[in-house]
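From: lab user (bench 3)
To: helpdesk
Subject: output format question, protein + protoporphyrin IX containing FE

Hello, I'm new to running complex predictions and I'm not sure whether the block I got back is the full result or only part of it. Here's what I submitted:
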Amino acid sequence: MSGHESTYKPGNAFTKWLDSRLPIIRLASDSFIDFPTPKNLNYWYTFGGILAICLAIQIITGVILAMHYTPDVTQAFASVERIMRDVPFGWLMRNIHTVGASMFFLAVYIHMFRGLYYGSHKAPREVLWLLGCVIFFLMIATAFLGYMLPWGQMSLHGANVIVNLFGAIPLVGESIKAWLLGGPSIGNQTLQRFFSLHYLLPFMIAGVVILHIWALHVPGNGNPEGVEVKDVEKDTVPFHPYYTVKDGFAIVVFLIIFAVLVFYLPNVLGHADNYIEANPLITPSHIVPEWYMLPFYAILRAITFDIGPIQAKLLGVIAMFASIGVLFLLPWLDTSKVKSMRYRPVARQFFFAFVAAGLMLGWCGASNPDDPVFPSLKGADAIVVEFTDPDGTKGTVTFKEKREIDAYEAGDAFQEQKIAEGATGVTLGTQTAKTFTFLHLAQILTGFYFAYFLIILPLLGLRETPKDEPESIHKAVLAGKRGSAAAATE
Amino acid sequence: MSDSQPTKPESVDEERRDFIHIAAIATTAAGAGLVAYPLIDQMNAAGDTKAASSLEIDISKVEVGGELRVLIGGKPFFIRHRTAAEITAADDVDISLLPDPESDTDRLRPLPSNDFNPAILVTSGTCTHLGCVPVGPSQGLVGDFGGWYCPCHGSHYDTSGRIRKGPAPTNLPIPNYEYVTPSVIKISL
Ligand code: HEM
Ligand code: FES
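Helpdesk reply: Thanks, we reran it on our side. This is the complete output you should expect:
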C-alpha cells in the first residue's frame, strides 16, 4: 500500500549514492519485496503475475520474429514458413508466440472472472479495474492485428469480416473502412500498417500495465474475503518470500502447460486454413476467429433482426462493442457493497451461470449458426416442389416424410410428373425442419450476458441478503483453520 | 499598469489573463489539428493504390455456365456467362417478393449498340453481409437459387446476383462498368 512506510535500507556505498539520485531499488523493494500483501490470497490471485510473464514472452518472441518476418503480401506467408523451417529455432519462437497469444487470453479471462467473483472492481479499486479493461481491449486489438501477419486464408478473410463491420456505421462507415485499409480492400498497404501497429500496441499495453500496478499499489491487493486490511501486522505478509514463491509456483505450472502446447500441440488451437496462402478470390468455407474472440463473435452474429431504423448488421456491431464496453461500467452497475461472492449466495449462482454463458457463447461462435444444437432432436427436412402449370397458375407442393430420402423420392416423382404434364419453372428445394439452432442459443445467451450486467447485478445488490462478512482477514484465516492445531492456540 | 510602480497582486487584469489563456489554447488546438491532419490522412489510399482502379476484360473467353473472377484494387468481381435456363430463372421472379427488389434488366448495362446482352452478368464479388467472397460455378456450388452462395453466414444469391435468402441485406452490387466493344468490358472502382 502506498501508505506503508518504506523499509528499504541501502546496503552499500553505491546503492546509497544511487538511492539519493534515482530511488529505483527502493521502488522495487517497496513494491515487490516488502509490500504488505493480504495473507489469504489463493491461486486465483497468481494470474496477475502470470500475465506479466505472458506479456514479456510475447514481446521477446515478437521482436525476434520481426527480425525475420517480411510485411509484404508477396513474401509474408513465405517468410513465416522460412521462420518455421530455416531460421535457427524459428519454429520455437513462432510456436511460442502463437501459443503464447492463446495462453495470454486464457490467463486474462481467468484473471477477469477472478475479479468479477471477488468484487475486485469495487471501491476503492475502480480505476484499477478500468485500466484492466483498457489492457483487455488493447490485447484484443493486438491479437487481431497479429493474426493478419502470417497472411494465410483465415488472416485475410477473418480480418475482412471484422473490418467490414465498420462499413455498417451509417454515413461515415465506408470512409472509415477505406481509411483503416488504406484502399478499397485489404492489400499490401493494410498488411504493412497492421504490422506497424502490432509492433506498437504491446508496448502501449506495457505502459498501461505500469499504471495498473500503480493503481493496485495505492489501495493494496483485494482478497478472497472481500474485507479490507485493518491491521497490517496481523492481516498481511510481505510480498517476498510469501508471494514471490506462490506466484513463482503458479508460473511454473502455467509454463508447463504452455510448453506442452508449444512442443506437442502447437496447432491445436489454430485453423488449418491459415496454412493456405491468402487468396482474395476464395473465402474459406467456415470463417471463425481465434478461440479467444468466439464469444464476442457469437454476440455479433446473434443480432439478426432490425430494431426500428437500425439495421441488424449495425446492431450486431453495436452489441459486440457493447459487450466489452459494459465491462467498463461494471464498478457502477454492481450496487452491492459486499465484495466477495463468498458472502453473496444468490449472486454467486448467477456468477456461475454467467461463466457458463460465456463458455457456451464461445461454442456458438465456433458453430454454424443454422446448425441444430441437438441434431438428434431435429425433424426431417421437407421437400418443396414449385411449378407453373401450362395454364399459368403457380403452385407449390410440400413433401414431408419421416425419412428425408422418402420425401425426396416423392418430390422427385412429382417433379417428373409435372414436367411431363408440360408445367414450366419446376424446381425442387428443401425446407429445413424447424429446430433449436445455435443462432437461437446465441440469442438467449446474449440476452443473459447483458442482463447479468444491466439488470441482475444492479438489482441484486439492492435486494439480496448477504451472509455476514468476517471481521478481519486475520479472523477469517483462523476460522478457516478451526479444528486444526492452529485454532487451538487462539 | 504603465507606471513604474511594481504591480500589486490585486491589480492583475483578469480579463487580459483570460484573453491570453484563450488565445494560447486556441492557437495550440489549431496547431494540434494541423499536425494531426497529415498524421491521420497518411492512412488513406495512396496515389498508386487509387490509380490501379480500373480494368478492361475480354468477356468472350468466359464459357457458357461459367464465370470469370477478377480482382481490381484487391476487390473481387464476377463476370458470369449465363445459360438460357439461368437467364429465364433470373427473369421469372416476382420482383415484389424480393428482399431487394430489382429486375434482371435493371442489373445489366447496354452494349455499344444500346441492346442488352442478358448472357453476361457482371457483379461485385463481395457479399453484402460482411464482405466474404461467395462461391459460385467456379467452385461448383451455387446455393439454393442457382447463383452464388456465401459460405460465411449462408447468404444465397440467384442467377442475377440478387439476395434471396440469408443475412445479406442487399443484392450483389453492379459495379461501374461499360462495354468498350461487344466483347470487352471496362470495370472501374
Ligand atoms: C500483447 C502481446 C502480443 C500478442 C497477443 C500477439 C499476438 C499475435 C498473434 C495472434 C499472431 C499470429 C500468430 C500466428 O498465427 O502465427 C502474431 C504474429 C506476429 N507477431 Fe505478435 N503478439 C504480441 C506481441 C508482439 C510483439 C511485441 C511483436 C514484435 C514486434 C510481435 C510480432 C509479431 C510478428 C512478427 C508476427 C508474425 C509471425 C507469425 O505469424 O508468427 N508480436 N502475434
Ligand atoms: S459475409 Fe456473406 S453471408 Fe456473411
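A quick orientation on your result: The mean pLDDT of chain A is 91. Let us know if anything else is unclear.
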